[in-house]
């Protein structure tokens, strides 16, 4: 099987490619990544010489390039995305371009080439914010509260529309907060670790009691693998860790592991549209 992975030099993408190469050594893996600030070829340095792996630097919004890469591909695992909420607040247009337009270009090219399965990797942020109790399910209404989650919601709906309109076999996954190796240090855990290594404080939004469900990236990759091989086209699959923690709990855990105390915490003004709680 030949699989096109978009965003394969990013955090989740590089872990997913490593998972596929190790578990399915006969598969051919084609990695398309623009190598923006959070994409790093070094994340996959140990498999660069693998004859079943190839890398193409390029933009998912480059329609001719995307069309040319679909030849012989059986499945697409679409992870390429702008994903940082704070950046989406300062530059929403970049998120519309990559997350919405890029997804539509990929869907169109994949449909024209008769791709057998298109797995669109999304986020639980499309559901908005939960109250103090309850869990997101695949039937939870979509209610995005940031430009990032709005762009991912739009891309999800394009994937859904290609199934409903064309019966093109799309599958959507929505995960909770990932953590693990190769994560870019703009995300909470690696950001706090690098700040503390550099002797800097760690900024905590608001009261620090926003809740996230934490999912180890290798578990997420196993779930994407299961959806790729066993999922039903047209369906949505939520992927969670059943591991809720407040931001302050995570902060204090990192502080403890780094040998730091509360004096290293700096409370800052909450960001606009900050969802209070996610849980799957």
Largest sheet: 7 strands, parallel
The CATH superfamily is NAD(P)-binding Rossmann-like Domain
Estimate nothing, just give the exact number of structural domains.
1
The CATH topology turns out to be Rossmann fold
Order of helices and strands: EHEEHEHHEHEEHEEHEEHE
What are the defining features of this structure?
single chain; alpha/beta; Rossmann fold; 7-stranded parallel β-sheet; 3-stranded mixed β-sheet; globular
How would you characterize the overall build of this protein?
This protein has 280 residues and is α/β, with parallel strands linked by helices. It has one domain (2-179, 215-239): Rossmann fold, CATH 3.40.50.720. It is 36% helix and 20% strand. The chain has eight helices and twelve strands. α1 crosses α7 (217-230), α4 (92-112) packs parallel to α5 and α6 (188-197) runs parallel beside α8. The relative contact order is 0.15.
Question: What topology does this entry show?
Answer:
Layout: E1 2-6, H1 11-23, E2 28-33, E3 53-57, H2 63-69, E4 75-78, H3 85-90, H4 92-112, E5 117-123, H5 147-166, E6 170-175, E7 177-179, H6 188-197, E8 202-205, E9 211-216, H7 217-230, E10 236-239, E11 244-246, H8 247-257, E12 265-268
Parallel strand pairs: 1-2, 1-4, 2-3, 4-5, 5-6, 6-10, 7-9, 8-12
Antiparallel strand pairs: 9-11
